[in-house]
Amino acid sequence: MESNSSSMAAYLAEHPKMVGVLFTMLVVLSQASGIVAAGQGTTVGP
Fold this sequence. Notes:
The protein has helices spanning 4-14, 17-39. The chain is mainly alpha-helical. It has one domain (3-37). The longest helix is centred in the middle third of the chain and has 23 residues, at 17-39.
């Protein structure tokens, strides 16, 4: 039985456009989480 990572590698080898799609999703999600983290800031002072 193949491991999960090797089956994912085989799938991406057969569908190279999905590499770009997954990378774009990773960038968008990381930017969105950065915006959320920035919005959770605290203010110091009175």
